[in-house]
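Final paragraph of the annual report: two paired records, presented back to back.
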Amino acid sequence: MIDFENKGFFKLKQDIDYAEKVTDLLLEDEQIVDSYKTMRDGVVFTTKRIIAVNVQGITGSKKDFTSLPYKNIVAYSIETSGTFDLDSELEIYFSAIGKVRFEFSGKTSMLEVSKIISSHLL
C-alpha cells in the first residue's frame, strides 16, 4: 500500500489515458471519471472509489494498486488553483487510514471530483 502518512502524494497532471492501467480492476457498474499521472505513478477517480497506482521497479512491470472507496470518506477539502498559482490540492480524510493528500499541477478542475465525493457523502 502507498505510504500516504509520510508525504503528500505526487504532483499529478490530467491524463485520461492513464485510466487504462486500472480497467481490469473495475466492477461492472463502475465508470472512470478522470485520471491523473506523474512520470509513472497516478490516480484514477471512478464512480465508486479512488485508485492510486504506484509503479515500482526499474522496468515498471510491478504495480501497487490502492483502492480508496468513497464510502470510507468522512471529510474532504479542496484548494482550487488561482491566477498565478495554478496548482490545486485535495485532502481526503478516511475513517480507516486518516488523511490522504493529492497535489495537482496545472489547471485542474476540482469541481467534478468534488461533486463525486459529495454525492457519496451527502
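The closing record of the year follows.
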Amino acid sequence: MPIDSLPHLDEHATLIAADADRIWPHLTDVVERSFSRIGMTEYARLVSATDPVRSGPRPLVEGSTFPGFRVAAAIPGQELALRGSHRFSTYALIFRLEPAGPGRSRLRAETRATFPGFAGGLYRQILLTSGGHVIGVRRMLATVRRRSEQGPPAGS
C-alpha cells in the first residue's frame, strides 16, 4: 500500500532557526535513536514488525531499517519517509523540511496509519488515548530543533 493511500492520523511541526542542510543530520540521528532505544527490538519482534532490527547503510538511505521502520525515502534537506507494519497496523511517519524565511526552516512530522480488524482498532485506541504517540513525536521535533540550533551537525 503506497504511503499516500494510508489514512492521515496527525501532523506536528516546529520552526527551527537553521537551514535544512544543517538540520538534516540531526533529524536522521534523532529519528533513528528514538526508535532504536533499549527494548525497541524486542517490542518490534513481539508485535511481529516487518522490520524488527537495524540494517542497511548509514547515514540513512532508502532501504535502511531500524526497529519497526524501513526508510521509504531519504531526500537530504527535504524529506525522510519511514514506513512500517506489524500485526496491528500499517503506518508511515514522514518528516518534511521546508524553508521558513532566511536561516529558518519548518520541520513537519506527518503520521499516516491503518489499523485493521478488532485488534487493530484496540491498538489504535491505546495509541491515541495514551498520548504516547503525540509526546514521542513532539519530543523528537524539539530535540531536532535544539540540536540544530545549538550544536554542530551530528558526526562532526
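The first helix runs from residue 20 to 35. This concludes the annual technical report; the extension proposal builds directly on these records.
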